[in-house]
Specification:
- With 154 residues, the protein is α+β, with helices and mostly antiparallel strands.
- It has a single domain (30-151), classed as Immunoglobulin-like (Sandwich), CATH 2.60.40.
- It has three helices and nine strands, in the order ααββββαβββββ.
- It has a five-stranded antiparallel sheet with strand order 3-2-5-6-9.
- A hairpin with a 2-residue loop joins strand 2 and strand 3 (71-77).
- Helix 1 (3-16) runs antiparallel to helix 2 (19-30).
- The longest helix is centred in the first third of the chain and has 14 residues, at 3-16.
- The model has no long low-confidence stretch (mean pLDDT 84).
- Bound molecules: 2-acetamido-2-deoxy-beta-D-glucopyranose (NAG).
- The site of 2-acetamido-2-deoxy-beta-D-glucopyranose has 5 residues, from loops.
- This is Phylloplanin.
- Residues 1-22 form the signal peptide.
- Keywords: Signal.
Length: 154
């Protein structure tokens, strides 16, 4: 579900249920308590769309930065499974700015996971909105990379 579809869905849902509850639900959904950006980095310079990436080797210990404009907003390091997770305060950066103005940039060169791969250039991905989950008292907006691709340095 894209972010636009999600908002449309919310509007329709809000019209279908009684007013006060609808307004509360709407606000909670638009202002999640946490935004979680999570994904997997693969050790490859080929484009890795999430679905066809499974056969690629993983990239552990890679520094993944959230870059918006020229500014680094957050960073995380991948674990042994190439996975990373960044918890963001939605008040610091709302979903729409995040999805429209930010990229995930892998700062660690590819040669760190495979010496045959380049020591310059970076893996970059835009962001995709997946949905909002409620976990206990928190509402968590989940965002994943749309797929990393290798950009050579110029
Ligand atoms: C990494 O993430 C994938 C997909 O969510 C999961 O299947 C795998 O178990 C995770 N591995 C580690 C080591 O966290």
């Amino acid at each position: 579900m894209s972010f636009k579809h999600f908002i449309t869905f919310l509007l329709i849902a809000a019209m279908a249920i009684p007013q006060t509850k609808a307004q509360l639900g709407f606000l909670t959904a638009l202002l999640p308590s946490v935004t979680n950006i999570q994904g997997t980095v693969f050790c490859t310079s080929k484009d890795n769309l999430p679905l066809k990436a499974l056969s690629n080797p993983l990239f552990p210990n890679a520094e993944v930065q959230l870059v918006c404009g020229e500014k680094e907003f957050s960073k995380a390091t991948t674990n042994d499974g190439g996975n990373f997770s960044m918890m963001m305060d939605p008040l610091l950066l709302d979903l729409s700015s995040l999805l429209n103005g930010c990229n995930l940039v892998v700062a660690t060169p590819l040669c760190n996971c495979n010496t045959n791969l380049p020591s310059s250039g970076t893996l970059i991905s835009t962001l995709n909105f997946v949905g909002i989950n409620r976990v206990a008292t928190q509402t968590i907006a989940k965002i994943i990379p749309s797929g990393f691709h290798y950009v050579p340095s110029t």
